[in-house]
Amino acid sequence: DFLLPPLMFDEDEIEALVFGIRATIVQGDDDMTAAARRLLGKIHDVLPEKWTARLAAQAFYPLSGKKTATCGAAEQQAHIRRALREHRTLHFHYTDAAGQASARTVWPIALGYFEDARLLAAWCALRRDFRHFRCDRIADAVPGAPCPQPHALLLKRWQAQEKLDLLRLYGF
What we know:
Elements: H1 11-27, H2 30-46, H3 49-57, H4 74-86, E1 88-95, E2 101-113, E3 118-124, E4 129-134, E5 138-146, H5 151-169
Antiparallel strand pairs: 1-2, 1-5, 2-3, 3-4
Helix pairs in contact: 1-2
């Protein structure tokens, strides 16, 4: 467990924090949604009375009121998040848009939550390159051994590659 020292937030920071928590409640899987609701309750419990009313009346909400496509069963999502959190390899079966199935071993980098999909960014051992996997096409996800490269290095390399891809896309 984490123990944070007392923190002070200004009005904009509280609004951003609550907005992020509400987005997690809307977009997260069951475990993340439950954790976000507990977190919102803890914040509510420690806010001064004048802020409690403001929190309840805050008018900033995520765009979508529906859950996005999921990564499959809740335990699959938990395995993906665990591999990210513990910086472990992840083994899974993947079916691409054309219906082609493959077994993959990846080094997870990031998990993106979009309104209509979730995307896992990872170094793919099969393709020997960075790849993005739609989570609703992942099955049988199982965390494996620790990743052979530090997460910070993978993240930096992936971000550099993404910037190059954008520059190429826009003709630079």
